[in-house]
Amino acid sequence: MKKILGIALGIVTSIGGFLDVGSIATSAQAGAAFGYSLLWAVLLGTICVIFLVEMSGRFSIVSGHTIVDAIRKRFGFAGFIVPFAASLLVNLLVLASELGGICVALQLLTGIRFQVWAIPVALAVWLLLWLGTFDVVEDGTALLGLVTLCFLVAVFTLGPEPRELAAGFVPRLPGEEHAHYLFLAVSIIGATIAPYLFLFYSSGAIEDKWDKSYITPNRYIATLGMSFGAIISMAVIVVAALALKPEGIRVEEYEQAALMLVPAFGRWGFYLFVASLAIACFGAALELSLASAYSVSQAFGWNWGEDLEPRSAARFSSAYTIFIALAALIVLSGLNPMKLTLFSMAITAVILPLTALPFLVLMNDARYMGEHVNSHFSNIVVLLIVLLAAILAVVAIPLEIIGSK
Amino acid sequence: MRTLLALVLVALAGCGDQHEQEMKSAASWSSTALAVARYWLQGDLPDTYAKRVLQKASEELAKGPLPDASEPVNQMIEAIGKRDQQAMRRLIAELQAQ
Hints:
The complex is a heterodimer of chains A (405) and B (98).
Chain A: H1 2-18, H2 21-34, H3 39-63, H4 67-110, H5 114-131, H6 134-144, H7 150-158, H8 162-167, H9 178-192, H10 195-207, H11 215-243, H12 254-257, H13 262-265, H14 267-300, H15 314-332, H16 337-363, H17 366-369, H18 376-404
Chain B: H1 2-13, H2 18-41, H3 47-62, H4 70-82, H5 85-97
């Protein structure tokens, strides 16, 4: 019974924690510009992230190691430093995007410029990490994140045409704006397969002391949690396609995206959007800060754990403190939060092979995994999607930069 | 590989005309202003947010290829300040005509 409750909570928290600033920004822009035609990108990203999350849980359960720790041991410091530095840099950009998302939500609500909120928001995130436990961080914010289900309710309220919806799952280039279409496709995939997600999940499995009895629950949590979470991400595309595209509104700023729930819920729609953006970004900011501090601590062999008192894991606590401060500085600099988010997601897609490929090697190493090594099918699916996303990102990012100048 | 190459070529070909992009952006901000004004009339948006988006729309329109469209948007901000629904209806018609 306890395990069933654990699975249910895991699935619920995966759903509530799925949406973040990247998913909201990329999906809103995709729906407003291209209707349903980028739904396939969420599907592709979701298939890959289900495999990666399941693998990361299985890896920690069987080997007793976190991914970062094992990559460092398996490949040595020289082989480890490049993916480590790249993923930390991307984490920093994504964390700045998440903090920016919370600040924009507060700006929408109060009219006070988003930069003003950078320090108070960073302090709030830091304080919760300093005082909270892993369960509070993981479950508390994800349960609040269930407010994002409002996008799903809006889909049923607005009533899309099922046949048109189904056509969105088949990739095809639109009649115009090919470069922007490709850029959004890779940004969506980057937002869906965020490496911090499976690095965090792997560390979480160790924090929660999962043993081999969790191999099956881990599979259910990864598959069902990520699938239902992705449905919300798809719902954002559908709502933007139904509410913004017919009006001729393209989402260049969050201010425009905030209109998308108004046709479904009236005045409440505005507040639901603000709450969804703020809560989803807050949850993701906590996870990102922790994931980055986990990575740094595991890389250097420091004591780590969110359930430890800060004085018992001083360098771990310092790592997330510095990380949050740096991200707050990026927000304070006044960089456009929407552009920062979209580029962070696209760069995430570029560096995916750097983190996913060493991880795949580990998943096939019997010294770590014993009889639980990956199947060929899992290897091929992850390899194909990750490489495709990276190649498309390398093509699409320069085109988007040229096109937006 | 061939599909990927085709994608790259198509994307390069569609790199986009700068003027066309600016027109699309201006049209989008104009549509945003219209939607905000309409929703505000229905009581679906708080004043603070409506004014802020219209301010942003006005700035974007003023620096784009449709600078004249920023004037009715500025007047919409004033209409919200005065809670003048009649003026807002007139301004919506004026912006739609542009």
